[in-house]
Structure formats: C-alpha cells, structure tokens
Amino acid sequence: MSIVQVENLTKIYGSGETAITALDHVNLRVEANEFVAVMGPSGCGKSTLLHLIGGLDRPTEGSVQIDGQVLARLSDDALSKLRRRKIGFVFQFFNLIPILTAVENAALPLLLDGANSAQAKQKAVEWLTQVGLGARLHSRPDQLSAGQQQRVAIARALITEPVLVLADEPTGNLDTKSSDEIATLLRQVAKEWGRSVLMVTHDPHIASYAERIVLMRDGKIVEDKRNG
User: Fold this and answer.
1) Residues 44, 39: Cα–Cα separation, whole Å
2) Which domain holds residue 84?
3) DSSP code string of 41-77
4) Domain count, the chain
5) Which among 60, 108, 169, 203 would be 20 to 30 A from 182, CA to CA?
6) What is the CA radius of gyration of the chain?
7) Would you say residue 23 lies in a domain?
8) Which of 88, 89, 106 is nearest to 168 (CA)?
9) pLDDT tens-place string over residues 38-75
10) Bridge partners for 213 per DSSP
C-alpha cells in the first residue's frame, strides 16, 4: 500500500474572475521507504501540494490518503493526532525554539503527545546521536551552525517514528556542503530508517539525491521519472 496517495488534488484560492488555481487535478503516490523530490519554478504549486498532503490545508477537490487514512474523513482532533504521529515536518528555516537546547527542541513532539519528560529526552538523545549531533545535545540553536540546526529539525521530525517525512526546501538556507550533507541524511532516512520522504526543492543537484523526481508546472505534474 502506498504511504501517500493523492487523487485529483485541486486547490483554488479565491473565486470568480480572481480565482487562482494553485493545484490542478494532481495524482501522486509515494511508496514506503521511497525518497521523492518535487521540483518546479516558484509558484508552480509544489509547496501547496506539500501542505495539503501534510493536512495543513484542505483541498478544493480531490483526496489525500496517508497510510490508508483519508484526511478529509478525519475530525480536526484526529487530523492533529495523525500529523503528530504519522508525519514529520522539516522546513527551510528550521523552526527551532531559540531558548531550548537541541535535546529539548527534538523532544517537543513527544511531549506535546503526552509522553513523560524522561522518555522524551532519552529518545531525543538517541535521534540526535543518529543524525550526528551526539556532541551538541545541550547547545541552543544560536550555538549551532545552520546545517546542525537542520539536523536537530530532522531529529525532531523523526522522534515520533512517522511513516512520512515532508521536507519543504530543507536546504534552501544552507551552504553547498551542508546542503549535500542534509540531502544525504534525508536519503538515509528513507533507505536505512524506513520512512517515506517527500521533499520540495528548486535545486536540481539536491533533487538528484532522490530516487524519483516529480516536475511541476502551473499546478500540474508534467513529468514523474525514476532518477538514474
């Protein structure tokens, strides 16, 4: 079964003559442990697609299934729970809390889901060590490089053992070396740690780390190809 199943997904903003079609009947599947990159020019609908798949927005038409659950059929509470437990989010600007250490930032999703503090912190230590930050557990974001901050964000995304990681321009704020390291890490997330990864990027070099590249233009998928 596909982890992500998108059918005829459409998103229209506004109405009448001012309506803008951000997504136009998009169909997409992402399988278990698959690393898929979505590329296209600015405004082509790739971030809208990611937000709809992540349940951060509701479609005008069509459906999204995550791990067999149709998002439109879920109550707000059930949707929040699915987002917390089944989906990990990684953003361009890290979204770390400045006054918290790496461990505290990474532990947050488990704490928000009701886990006790000791368990959450232990798991945060394990994931931060996995992503190469075992020596920086107690550093705050301002004491970390941009690449290290993104590693904290990836550990935070993985701590709930999600089936899917959604990464929106995860290297957009990084230098070339750090970008390559983060792209390599996301490939590891899929291939070694068994998550599906759907990444939006405008960078063809970063997209080349994925095993499948989906090209979008004007709200539609125009090409969907295996990489290499």
Assistant:
1) 9
2) 32-57+75-226
3) STTSSHHHHHHHHTTSS--SEEEEEETTEEGGGS-HH
4) 1
5) 108
6) 17
7) no
8) 89
9) 998 888 888 899 999 998 888 999 999 998 889 989 88
10) 37, 225
